[in-house]
Sequence to fold (293 residues):
Amino acid sequence: MRKINRATIVHFSPTGTVRKVALAFKDGCAPLTSKVSVHDVLTPESRTELIDCTQDTLLIFAFPVYYGRMPLPLRGLNFLKGHGTPAIIATVYGCRACEDAGREAAMELTERGFVPYCIGEVPARHSLNHEVAPARPDHRDARELRLLIGELIRGIEGETWLPYACDTATPLKPYGHQFLNPEPVDATLCKSCFVCAKFCPMGIIDKDTKRIQESHENECEACMACVERCPKHLRAIPAKVADPFKEHMRLFKEQLCSRPQGELPDELPILVRLTDKTGARLFKAGGSHEATL
Fold:
């Protein structure tokens, strides 16, 4: 029987929603393990130090979904190292779809010495449209995550859950390209606090111009870390694309809100994909097994 003595929670949270998920997991782990550590890997500097996880550690890896994939700054996961270490993946998505993000993380964690046991799908406020599930993750989500992590730990220790049966043969979907690189609304009002540059996950904001460096324009994911953190609220998407962007977001929200009852953004459940002795299954937080996959 495997014994989990400590938990290491690693999160990448440009707009704060993933951090809420990570802290809920922390609270759920505290009564069950002797030590819980939390690592924020948003900035390039934070990813320079290796997080080495022993076999009796549980890694909880939480990140947002971009274009159905794992965020670009996390590719390779060179800041993580496992030794047959069990891992739980939490994909946090803006109520559209997770697609290949969890599978991509599972494959890369396996390469880094981890044993993924499940992929969680957690609905959250959309990073580009705050009218979509504006309060999520909410108090109900936090409670379900606290209870869920306890059930997952007990399942891993008791071998109820098996290592996740991940599809490694199907190619990952192509990574999307966006056109929304945030920029200063009025550079004359900027106080040069450099918060935008400090918290850019790609490290590509020029400190002089406060804009994305021209040679790195295609690397911006519009994660909105710089927009969320600007103390003067002086950053936004470019004016030249503001109108088509607003229309796109209007249609996006309309599409989500036309879903059937139970699938609306405020109603989406937290789901977990895992493998037990009967095969791959879909598990709903706060409920029972929903379906065999």
